[in-house]
User: Fold this.
Amino acid sequence: MVEEENAPVTTCCLTTCVTCSTFSIMGGVVAYYVFGIMYLIRYYQECKDCSKSELWAYVLATLITGFLHGSVKHTDKKENNSDADATPICIIICLGLIDAGLASWGGIELWDKSCDNLVNTNLWKFAFATFCIQTTSAVIALVIVPCGIACFVKKITDLDTDRQSIV
Assistant:
């Protein structure tokens, strides 16, 4: 009886948490893009004066590819696509490869090609934050997700082997 009375409260709390989390993530994404664009505008001349660095182009490229990440769609299984089950995994791996490539470029721009006048700017800090996000995303997509899938497949295979040995 007590559980039935708490069910609406639990549902309300869960809905509130999910809604607040969703709005927080959306706000963070908007702030990321706003500050990125502001820093690109503000530090354009400093980046132009540093002829060996392409930090400005790196930040611009990451902002553009971020929009592409958000526009990736999953194929519908109703289209009779036999590879529809593998599509999300392929998308995750491709996005991980893109992030790994961008993070590599960002690392080179941040630590190898960066001029002294850029190191203390907000654009450099923004690029560093972006580098950290891309590195984390690449590790998740290229290491953790495939390892998790492999463990899941092994567990299913072991269960099937156990069932067959019982019969």
In short: The radius of gyration is 22 Å. DSSP finds six helices and no strands in the chain.
